[in-house]
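FW: tagging you since you asked about this chain on Friday. Here's the raw sequence from the shared folder, copied in full. Didn't touch anything.
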Amino acid sequence: MTIYRSRTFLKQYVKLPEKVQKKVKQVLKLIVENPQHPGLGIKKMVNHEKVWEARIDIHYRMTFEMGSNTLTLRKIGTHEIYRNP
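HL: got it, structure written out here
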């Protein structure tokens, strides 16, 4: 699977605490290996047909689009990302 990162995702990612960045790497590995893993909490975003969200931890989420062999990371952050995923 090829992973693409949007400019917005990259800008938000570098601002995250190092501890959260490590969790993001673990979540990405799980998404690639098993997107149905219950710990990810993956669900489709309301009113956005192609956008999904995954749980990083209790405070952080990320949004992405999933293709047949691609994963496009859109945004990452606290629940504020829901305003415009």
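FW: The longest strand covers residues 70-77.
HL: agreed, and The mean pLDDT is 91.
FW: great, closing this out.
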